[in-house]
Amino acid sequence: MREFGYQRAYDVSGAVALLDGDWEARFLGGGTNLVDLMKTGVERPALLVDVRELPLDRVEPTGDGGLRIGATVTNSDLAAHPEVRLRYPALAQAVLAGASGQLRNMATVGGNLLQRTRCGYFADVASACNKRNPGSGCPAITGEHHNHAILGASDHCVATHPSDMGVALAAFDAVVSYETADGPGELPLADFYLPVGETPHLETALPPGALITGVTLPPAPVAANSRYRKVRERASYAFAIGSIAAALDVEDGVVRDVRLAFGAVASRPWRARTAERALLGAPADAENFTAAADAELAQAEPLTHNGYKVTLMRNLVVAGLSELAEEATR
Ligand SMILES: Cc1cc2nc3c(=O)[nH]c(=O)nc-3n(C[C@H](O)[C@H](O)[C@H](O)COP(=O)(O)OP(=O)(O)OC[C@H]3O[C@@H](n4cnc5c(N)ncnc54)[C@H](O)[C@@H]3O)c2cc1C
Ligand code: SF4
Fold it and tell me: What is the DSSP code string of 153-220?
């Protein structure tokens, strides 16, 4: 591991000033992803600016009925928060479906959003990888890709985003707040992750040196009837091979509001807007849930060894929405 400096920041402007202009410095949240990548040489920062003592560790209701989540709230505290469990249960379930208790105690909201892909070639510095080393190639396309993307990928990268939390945040239209030396800014989650295109190394629309300060969830009454469903190769302590965050409001048997986002199938949490449009105003039954899933998955471009994800995602959508529809009519 390369030698590195360490500084702890106690206020937001101090943290931003410490990082400003230093392209070899990184913010340190829980360190559960960054430090691993430093050990393997994928990341080689000269300076770590620890943000865990910043006053960004609260979950607070907003005046309009939403929630504001600070960037240094730990995954454990987020999942346990009573307002999250009551008003956005899929978010609490998504967080609890990730990692282990010990990791969730360390991992932060800001770090979770910026965690890197679990593509094995990305993690191996001896391998080519366009994301790690632009222009070097993408061995995953003809190699090991059974857990890679089926949606929104490109000829340059087929990696998936690993965050469970991000999938629920995408379903509920979260907005990411950040601070830079030039002042604060906001990015809706839908615009936060850049399309993979020809530049897979450029992952987010955050300005250079930006500190994530928090995430705001707008009010969403439908979110109170929501679920996170995750399929993984082991029963626990494993990343998803497919997941959904779903929320459903049904009146007189008809879909009045619906939210649907997919995980582990694209380079970012994938909001399933085509499926949502197909469902609004339609009878809440398995036939329509299947048709909506198929409409979304018509965009899928599976590789040789990950076509199973199309069926897996269809089944997840139908099972998840059927469960929510049953509960909505109880
Ligand atoms: C064994 C294992 C299993 C896991 N399983 C899952 C899983 O199933 N599902 C899942 O979703 N995740 C899983 N994770 C990933 C884990 O959730 C992430 O490592 C964690 O969320 C990252 O948060 P952190 O605070 O530790 O980030 P760090 O490792 O500290 O940082 C990650 C990145 O974010 C940047 N950063 C951190 N905070 C800020 C900020 N406020 N502003 C700007 N940049 C910032 C850092 O510079 C770095 O680039 C697993 C991790 C491990 C090690
Ligand atoms: S899929 Fe993306 S991260 Fe994986 S090897 Fe290809 S370019 Fe690198």
Answer: --SS-------SHHHHHHHTT-EEEEEETTEEEEEEHHHHBPP-TT-TT--B-PPTTPEEEEEEEPP-
Q: Which of 32, 53, 69, 108 to mutate to test the pocket of ligand 1 (most atoms within 8 A of CB)?
A: 32
Structure tokens at 36: 């691993």
Rounded to a whole number of angstroms, the distance between the first and last alpha carbons of the chain is 56
Q: Does the beta carbon of 122 lie inside 6 Å of ligand 2?
A: yes
Evaluate if residue 281 carries a pLDDT over 90: yes
As beta bridge partners, residue 245 has: 228, 261
Q: Is the shortest distance between the CB of 30 and ligand 2 below 6 Å?
A: no
Mean pLDDT of the 296-317 span: 98
Paired tokens of 74: 């730990």
State both tokens at 157: 């990268």
Considering just the CA atoms, what is the radius of gyration of the chain in Å? 20
Residue 224: which residues within 8 A CB-CB, separation 6 or more?
86, 87, 88, 89, 247
Residue with tokens 């601070």: 179
Contacts of 63 (CB under 8 A, 6+ apart): none
Q: What separation in angstroms does the CA of 62 have from each of 58, 65, 194?
A: 12, 6, 28
Is the Cβ atom of 140 under 6 angstroms away from ligand 2? yes
Q: What angle do CA 311, 314, 317 make, to 5 degrees?
A: 150
- pLDDT tens, position by position, 173-218: 999 999 999 999 999 999 999 999 999 999 999 999 999 999 999 9
| Joined tokens for residue 104 | 């969730």
Question: Which ligand 1 atom sits nearest the alpha carbon of residue 54?
Answer: 41
pTM: 0.98
Tens digit of pLDDT for each residue in 85-105?
Answer: 999 999 999 999 999 999 999
Token pair, residue 118, equals: 């679990």
- Write out pLDDT tens, residues 209-221: 999 999 999 999 9
**Ligand 1 within 6 A of CB of 107:** yes
